[in-house]
Amino acid sequence: MGPPLCLVVATTVAYFLLPLDKFGPHRPLLSWTIFYVGMAIVTYLLLRQIMNAYVDKPGTHPVIVIPVLMFLAVLLFSGTYYALAKDPNAFMGLKTRLDALYFTVVTLATVGYGDVVPQSQTARLVTMFQILYSFVVLTAAATAVTRRVRRRAGERLGRDDLS
User: In angstroms, what CA-CA distances link 118 with 24, 26, 93?
Assistant: First the structure.
C-alpha cells in the first residue's frame, strides 16, 4: 500500500474516530475557524498542485497528490456537515458521520436524492459553498490530472495530439 493510499485510509479512520462532537453550534468560533483554516490549506495545496500539473514541474506528482487533496476536501465538508447537524434544525436525515459523508458525496455528484436535506440557513450556505467549490476548484483539479495523464500518455506514444 503506497503513501497516498495510506493517507486516505488514515484520514478516513481519523474522520470516524476523532471527537467531532467537540465542534458544532455550541462552539461556533472553534468550528468555523477549523473549517476555514482547513479549507484554506487544502485549497492552497490543490491550487499549487494544479499549477504543477499545468507547467509540468519536474519532481512533482500532482496525479497522485491531487486526488488525495480532493478526498481531504470531501472529509472537511463531511465533518462540517456532521458538526452542523448537532443543531437538530440544521438537517433533516443527517444523524451520523456516515450520513454526513454520504450527503457530501451525493452533493459532490450532484445527485440529490432528497433523503438528507439542509434546512437551516447555515447548512444551506455551506452546501452552496460545497457546490461552488466542487464546480470551480475540484473540477479544475480533476481537469489538471486528466490533462497531465493524457500528456504523459501522448509522450509515451510519441504523439502530441492527446493533450
Answer: 15, 19, 9
Question: Is residue 163 pLDDT above 70, yes or no?
Answer: no
pLDDT at 154: 83
Burial class (CB in 10 A: 0-12, 13-18, 19+), 50: buried
| Separation between Cα atoms, residue 80 and residue 70, nearest integer Å | 16
Residue 87, H or E segment: none
Tell me the whole-structure pTM to 2 decimals: 0.90
C-alpha 116/C-alpha 90 separation (Å) is 11
Q: What is the pLDDT of residues 53-75, one digit of tens each?
A: 999 888 889 999 999 999 999 99
Residue range 131-142, pLDDT digits in tens: 999 999 999 999
Beta-carbon contacts of residue 125 (< 8 Å; ≥ 6 apart)? none
* Number of structural domains in the chain: 1
User: Which CATH number belongs to the domain containing residue 127 in this structure?
Assistant: 1.10.287.70
Residue 147 maps to a domain: yes
Which residue shows C-alpha cell 465538508? 77
For 162, residues 6+ apart whose C-beta sits below 8 A from its C-beta are 150, 151, 153, 154
